Amino acid sequence: MDLPSPKSNIEKLHTYKPNFGKSKIDNLIRLSANESALGASLDAINALKFFSNDLNRYPPQVSNELIGAISSRYSLNKKKIILGNGSDELISILAQTFLNYNDEAIYTEFGFLQFPQAISIAGAKGIIANDVNHTASVDNILSKISKKTKLIFLANPNNPTGTFIPKKEVIRLHESIPKKILLVYDAAYSEFVVNHDYIDGSELADKYENVIMLRTFSKLHGLASLRLGWGYSSENIIENLMKVRGPFSVNAAAIMAGIAALEDLNFQNKSVQHNLKWMSWFEKELRSLNLDFKKSITNFLLIKFPIEKKYNAENAKNFLASKGILVRGMKVYGLSSYLRVSIGADEENIKFINELKTFLKKNE
Predict the structure, then answer these.
(1) Against a cut of 0.85, is the pTM above it?
(2) Where are the alpha helices (DSSP H) in the chain?
(3) What does the DSSP assignment read for 273-341?
(4) Boundaries of CATH 3.90.1150.10 in the chain?
(5) Fewer CB within 10 Å, N- or C-terminus of the chain?
(6) CATH superfamily of 8-39+266-362
(7) 42-264 has which fold?
């Protein structure tokens, strides 16, 4: 029996597959997904204990309570906040809302893989702007703008490189693009940033119609399994996105946990301090091992391994997996000599470095 064919742009796509790594060891240390090192807030976990009634009821289409909590926590306008089933959903519906088949959207060379995926699904053409030293280049982004450009996707800080472009460069980018182009500013890791030269995008979204800032509860707040994200933009942008977003996008459990997580400032501060402490420790240890790495302002970093030697990135990844430690290979990004490693809990970080030392010594 003949079946209908998918759209040609879908037929050409490869399924997006998160790669957490594999190991035969049961008790795994997963440093491959940039997840919260300290788990989730106990307040958020306790909030879910009360989530037993009304399972037969649909969640609210728009949770004013969660939007109010976000507004209060970050001092933002309630009317300019949209919730999503993870920020991934918002990336997807942005592309579906604004891109036609003859449109173009720009994304950076080592940017989040979900950007080109969403562009392709919408049927538009993705245009790559090359990075400079693994960092997004404003000049290269601007050079790729054409009459067909509708969206620019920029993750800042960037995943998987951990690099960022400073406030002045972000402002220069926005000032240089036509008003008809929407800047999608993904600030998923912004809560980990303590650099005063950084801008999270909210002030641009407050002032201008053509900016949307994206955020997530998956990183600092440790609610990755509940899939909760949000965006901040003009009311006109939000209104159009709501036409495309599913009617019950965010589930009730995520709403309850999200509100509790936002209110637990002690957990948030503890997570940031933990990350700063161990990032500094990681850098010191990696220097002592003569391994190069990208300076990161996130909760992960890229470690470079020699290509021509036995202790290359692939062998290192496989060795660590044999010891029950999962890290992220970067071949899919064209960075085959790098591994991305998340900051974990105290004992996880120590074990990772100890096993890495064993691997390097074994392959001297």
Answers:
(1) yes
(2) 8-11, 42-49, 64-74, 87-98, 114-122, 138-143, 167-176, 202-207, 235-244, 252-263, 265-288, 313-322, 346-362
(3) HHHHHHHHHHHHHHHHTT-EE---SSSEEEEE--SSSTT-HHHHHHHHHHTTEE-EE-GGGT-TTEEEE
(4) 8-39+266-362
(5) N
(6) Aspartate Aminotransferase, domain 1 (3.90.1150.10)
(7) Aspartate Aminotransferase; domain 2 (3.40.640)
